[in-house]
Write a structure and sequence with these properties.
Layout: E1 2-5, E2 10-15, E3 22-23, E4 28-34, E5 37-42, E6 47-52, E7 59-60, E8 65-71, H1 78-87, H2 99-109, H3 118-129, H4 136-144, H5 150-157, E9 164-166, H6 180-186, E10 194-199, E11 202-204
Antiparallel strand pairs: 1-8, 2-4, 2-7, 3-6, 4-5, 6-8, 9-10, 10-11
Amino acid sequence: MVEVRAPLQAQLVQWLVQPGDTVAVGDVLVILEAMKMEHEVRATQPGKVLSHYFAAGEMVQQGDLLSKTELFPHYPRPETAKRLETDESSDDAIAGPSQAEAALSTTVAAAPAPDARPDLARLQQRLAYTHDASRPEAVAKRHAQGLRTARENVADLCDPGSFSEYGALAVAAQRSRRTEQDLIQNTPADGMVTGIGQVHGRSTV
């Protein structure tokens, strides 16, 4: 019998397995959220899920019993078995370039010219989402409460043009239940502005 316990105090977001399901080592059992970050609790032994003790939305404390799993004897994961079968296949597979190699060659040959720089355009768009101008509703809500945004405070605190931001492209660790575009647009820098600047000519972190 394997007991699955909460590694930290958090909110239970989602069960990815149900009682009766079989799991292999490394399978994600449940997702917890703490401090806006999601934490995956994975199976450490192969087995059959017997029960859950908390439901989605409930708070759990560190060490709380989340689930129990009936232990199975060790068995190879499906992808491992498939890889072993591939390794034992005939030598016909090495007669010529693999499909993956052929596809790679085609992709490289058809790569866009360096001056196109679509990656730079995507970067500029991502950075634009971090500016207050891209979040008028959120800014208006702060101002209505008599508050300022973090970027307004940084702009007034640091000497003009001296602030270099780090982590602007970070987003909230909630990919299992929100789309990437939603996170990019609505959780820029994961709600925290960090960087290095100067205050009255002195470097400040």
